Amino acid sequence: MRSLSDTLARLAKMRGANPPTSPVDDRLTDLGQFGSNRGELEAKIYIPKGLMPRSALVVVLHGCTQSAAVYDQASGWSHLAEDYGFAVLFPQQTRANNANTCFNWFVPGDIRKDQGEAFSIRQMIETTIARYDIDRSRIFITGLSAGGAMTNVMLATNPELFAGGAIIAGLPYGTATTVPEAFDRMRGQGLPSVDKLQSLLRSASNHKGPWPTIAVWHGTSDATVLPANAKAIIDQWRGVHGLAIQPDIGEMIDGQSRKTWTAADGREVMEFFNIKNMGHGTPLDTSTGYGRAAPYMLDVGISSTLHIARSWGLIASFEKRVKADMDVTVAEPSVGFRPELTHGQPASGIQKTIEDALRAAGLMK
Fold first, then answer.
1. What is the per-residue pLDDT for 317?
2. Catalytic residue among 55, 67, 78, 145
3. Rounded to whole angstroms, how far apart are CA atoms 239 and 228?
4. Which of 28-42, 98-112, 186-200, 321-335 is least confident?
């Protein structure tokens, strides 16, 4: 166990890690009252003009030293929501809860079902569903670092609520209960066995399935949350999905490695983007027009925001792929984790309009 002085030194380093940033274009509004709010969080939201009934909802959790507005501006989620017509909810940490504005992903009273911060996030999601007529079958969640770890908390404790989740530079559920343990896990030290990881997930709720799809994004050069955590997250979720250790598909997308695991019914239910030479942060491609580089928001030529949204069926899905065992590049539609296929339901609304147009042009079967 690390000494108290070592832990305090690490906390001080985190507080000074981010240089001053340019003024934030805050496009978000307050959600307002959302229940008892036991975790004492704040809730920000972006609702595009003309939001259609039964729209999708994406829940986005910022990283340490960030705010909802900062993460939104850099990641581009609200601009994407504006263009494609879905709602985005941003839980926001307060300094009263955590001096570094980290979500408390390791505090027992904040990571159990119906307790603390996890319960507050559930309450704000339920309030958004009721207030904006959200489709319960199309609720998704993503987050960076401590927000990525808290994303895993929500997926583990409330799996019935989410169709899919994307964990960026995050950590496995339930593996730390103190600040020193949290730093050790971030360093890849003391991570549990595969059996223990899977037991922690199963004991987080009484849910028996179906389970949300899981996407894991991590940089190979991440020195803040070591890549061993990405493997641990994958191992943690393989059990409930009944997946083998080795992925079923390996390919290159935008110059980066993507591995996917397929369920017995043929659906892709887990993917891992391993971003070469990237440090700690959210991968972006600012040339797409979505997002901007900032501390922990890294312009590395691949947009996690766009790829995550595509995999959830929220936007049009075309990209060039290079199969790992082939030397040719082929252009093909990327269906990924589309919930319309996962649940055996036809696409609807904006997604259906897009797909109908693509089929008419002969670009989609």
1. 57
2. 145
3. 18
4. 321-335
CA distance 363 to 360: 8
Question: Which pLDDT score, from 0 to 100, does residue 316 have?
Answer: 74
Q: What is the DSSP string of 265-288?
A: TS-EEEEEEEETT--SSEEE-GGG
Beta-bridge mates of residue 262: 268
pLDDT tens digits along 224-248: 999 999 999 999 999 999 999 999 9
39: left (phi over 0), alpha (psi -120 to 50) or beta: alpha
Question: Sheet containing 329-333: which strands, arranged edge to edge?
Answer: 29-30, 42-46, 87-92, 55-61, 134-144, 164-168, 213-219, 268-275, 256-262, 249-253, 318-323, 329-333
Encoded amino acid at 146, one letter: A
Q: Does the pLDDT value for residue 159 go beyond 90?
A: yes
203 flagged as catalytic: no
Whose CA is closest to 120, among 136, 133, 109? 109
Q: How many CB atoms lie within 10 A of CB 126?
A: 15
Say how far apart CA 253 and CA 258 lie, in whole Å.
7
**Binning pLDDT at 50, 70 and 90, where does residue 318 land?**
very low
